[in-house]
Amino acid sequence: MLIQLQIISLVSALLWTQTLAGKSYYVTKSGKDTNIGTSEATAWLTIKKAANSATPGSTVYIGVGTYYEAVTVNVQGNVQDGPITFTNLTPNKIPIISGKETKKTSADGTLNIIYIQDKSYLRFINLELTELKAVECSGVRITGGGTNIELRNLHIYNIRGGGENGGAMAITVYNTNQKTSRRQVIIDNCTLHDCEPAWSEALTFNGNVEQIQVTNNKVYNMNNIGIDFIAGESWTGKLGVRTGQCANNTVWNIHSIYDSSAAGIYVDGASNITIEYNEVHHSDMGIEIGAENKGQIATNMTVRNNYLHHNDKYGLAFGGYDSKRGRVTNSSFTDNRFEQNDNNHTGGGEIAVSYASSNTFLRNIVKPNDQNVILLADGKGGLTNVFDYQKYYPNGKDATQNNLIFYWGNTECNGLTTFQKKSKQEMHAQVFAN
Beta partners for 112? Predict the structure, then answer.
């Protein structure tokens, strides 16, 4: 397990998290929407009522119980008065919002438990969202431009029914507005599991979205990609996801139902994302940095200090989709730990590189499985990157550097020394007994 570190980044420093003293509103199972909502005795009955009535800087306290409703948020805070916060009333007792009876779609035609469009300064804390089923739906769906949205300590699960033309996702952040970005989004300490996001992703950002913080979350038991940052899809516009931090998340049991190639954490064409101190295990793949769309480049990515282990295929893959679509450039992959990946013995090993250039892969610890396959670098697009200073631990009793296998283009290099001579890479690598 990784030691959970407190991450202080530029993104989190920019995000508005202070709670100002403001009005309090209450929602309870014994309330009435005709009440004034300003005390437990005069509480409202529905969260929808609060989402239409709360004022900037206020806190909406939600009582225990299950609320069968879909909530479209029609209010917002502001920079002067502060955000509107929706949270639990009773300490250690989390209210449940169920989509089981939800039939009315949101403004964008999808089904959602919480829907936010073009709103800012909102916080959702200590809530449980569950029981929603549709071909395209989300536990929380944020669309359009705006700033300062925080999702903290949410438990989202059992979002089902996703299909090829959609997906049943835990959290979705989309923005097709090219003039106003969706910025300063925090998703922290949430638990997301047992959803059916295929053919989409469990926790996904797409379009004109920037200054993202995804930290301390648990994401597991999903039928496609766990966490995704996307740019370059034509329907979202030219501007794509950029600038963010993805740190201290634990992701496991992520398996695609249609191609068995779902990464726990995936970047598809986005830029300037720091991915650090995450653990990804027992998934199709660990982390993938790619670009699927023609003309799109994933650039200035920082992938460091992650623990990637026991995944079915690669621990890490980076590069464009094919010779005509996508590239990964000017990114660094440093100080990560790879252990026992390629569980399915595909022969691909720990690290795969396709159409990528001017990237650095340095100071990583690599402990392969009994195949001892380290690297698969594509001969047409994966040979113009820098590999050095790795620490390798060959698998097997009395195993040495000669047991390590590197695929460099069309050449199979048996042993680190052979790889060094062929590639002129890894001139400072070290080999240790496992």
Answer: 138
